[in-house]
Structure formats: C-alpha cells, structure tokens
Amino acid sequence: MANHSATKKDMRQSAKRRERNKYYGKTTRNAIRDLKELKTGPEATKELPEVASMIDKLAKKGIIHKNKAANLKSKLTKRVNALTKAKTVSSVKSGKWSDAATWGGKVPGASDTPLIASGHTIVYDVASSTVAGVNVNSGGVLQFDNLTSCTLLSTQNIVIEGLLQMRPNTPTVIQVLRFTNIDETKFVGGGMDVLATDIGLWVMGAGQLDLAGSTKTSWLRAGGAIAQGATSIAMETAPTGWLEGDEISITPIEPPSVGDAYLGALMLQPSKALPLQM
C-alpha cells in the first residue's frame, strides 16, 4: 500500500484519468453509433466533422492509437460518401410506385434511395427496377401489387421500420426482392446496427414483414406404382398451385425392410419437369 504523499497523489490522478478516458471513449462510441444509424447523405455529412474531431481528441489524449483513429475516420468517411452518392427520393403521398406524383415528380432510379414516409402506403407495381436501397419509415408501408409479377433489385440496404408486404394473389404471380452487385467479402456482421458493408434486408425497431405465398399442395400420392425411368406420373388427386418448372421429389412409402424395392423407388427430378396425369 502506497504511503508516500506523492505516490498517493499519483494514484488519485491515475484513477481520475481512467474515469475521464472511459467517459470520453463511451461518448465517442455513442457518437459513432449514431452516425452509422443515419440514412441520408445530408445528415451524415453534417455529423461527420464533429465525430472526426472527437476521434482526434481521443488520439491526442492517448486513449486510442493514432492509427486506429485514422482507420475509424476513413471507414466513417467511406460510409458517408456512399450515402451521399445515393440520392434519397421521399414519398409525398400514398400511391403506386410507378406514378411520378407519388414521389413528387420523379420515379426512383438506380442511383436513388426511395424513402417511404410515415403514413404512406406505396404499391410496388413495376415489372422490374433497380434502386440503391429502400427505407420504410415507421408507419410507412411498401406493398407489392398482389396481382402483378414484379422484381425489386437493390444495390444497398433495405431497412424496414414500417411494413413490407408481399402477398401474391395466385401461384402464377411471382414476386422477388433481390440484392445485386454485392461484395460479400466486406461483410462485417456481429451487431444490431445497420452497416453499409452488410447489405441485406434489415427489419428494425417495430418493423414487420408480411410475406405469404399462394396456396400450393405440399404432397400427394401417386395413382399407382412408378417405374424407374418413367416420363409421366399418374396422380391420385389434382395438385393445387403446381407450375411448370417446379421441382418434384418422389419418395417411397414402404419401409426399408423391403430392400432393393425401397432403394429403387426413390427418385429426384430436380431439372426435368414430368408431365402429370390426373
């Protein structure tokens, strides 16, 4: 135990510095987190200098290494630049995606990030389009037209804080949400914050997904024995919702004790559509 007055003073000062450093470090971490959560370029551009200054102060005080400070600022700058490149196009009223009036005069394009504002329901009715991410605010709804086959491609994150609804009315209506031109080697993971590197579908806060396909028969019985190599199958009943190109797995219903008959009865036709006879 230190009993020299100078040593005791050093210990008190060290304890104060530790507490101060913890405070500064926590405050800066919170600021970095808040910056990462911003979704629009103007907001992020405004906050970046202040956060960078906080990081510089940590490095100056020796709380973090100067190289780490430089890396943090570089990553944040890249993130902000990515947000700035994508122009946010906000909805001004409920309506169809394809209607320019829904967006105040311009339908979102490949370099735009549509933002669906609270209280607005936007019906996606386009056969195919590409955007640089989508943000659905709390209280907003992105609803795929249930009578239209449509594909939405995104090169950036889709963040749902409201509702995303995809409910095709019939099996012939195919609805697709796909991410394209994604560099998976940059994926970071491991957190609950939306990251520009981890491009995908993010459901945040009170956000909801309402996804339901049309009714489709999951299984049924063949009308009789199926010979190995058969090119057509007689079914006991007519299936619901089966389409050309669907994959069909043919499995045995006899126990393994039947031996070779059991093995020979198992076939999988993943790429060849078999004509069905009802």
List the SSEs and their pairings.
Layout: H1 5-37, H2 41-60, H3 66-85, E1 87-90, E2 95-96, E3 112-116, E4 121-124, E5 128-131, E6 134-136, E7 141-144, E8 150-154, E9 158-160, E10 163-166, E11 175-179, E12 201-203, E13 208-211, E14 233-234, E15 248-250, H4 260-264, E16 267-269, E17 276-277
Parallel strand pairs: 1-3, 2-4, 3-6, 4-7, 5-8, 6-9, 7-10, 8-11, 9-12, 10-13, 14-17
Antiparallel strand pairs: 15-16
What would your notes on this structure say?
This protein has 278 residues and is an alpha/beta fold. It folds into 3 domains: 5-85, Methane Monooxygenase Hydroxylase, Chain G, domain 1, CATH 1.20.58; 87-211; 233-277, no CATH class. 28% of the residues lie in helices and 22% in strands. It has helices spanning 5-37, 41-60, 66-85, 260-264, and strands at residues 87-90, 95-96, 112-116, 121-124, 128-131, 134-136, 141-144, 150-154, 158-160, 163-166, 175-179, 201-203, 208-211, 233-234, 248-250, 267-269, 276-277. The strands form 5 sheets. A 5-stranded parallel β-sheet has the order 1-3-6-9-12. Strands 2-4-7-10-13 form a 5-stranded parallel β-sheet, with no helix packed on it. The longest helix has 33 residues, at 5-37. It starts with a helix and ends with a strand. 18% of the residues are buried.
Shape: elongated
Structural class: alpha/beta
SS elements, strand count? 17
Percent in helix: 25-40%
Estimate what percentage of residues fall within beta strands.
15-25%
Number of domains: 3
Major pleated sheet: 5 strands, parallel
| Secondary structure tally, helices | 4
Rounded to an integer in angstroms, the radius of gyration calculated over CA atoms is: 29 Å
Average pLDDT across residues? Answer: 81
Element string (H = helix, E = strand): HHHEEEEEEEEEEEEEEEHEE
**Alpha-carbon distance between the termini?**
91 Å
- Spatial arrangement of strands, main beta sheet: 1-3-6-9-12
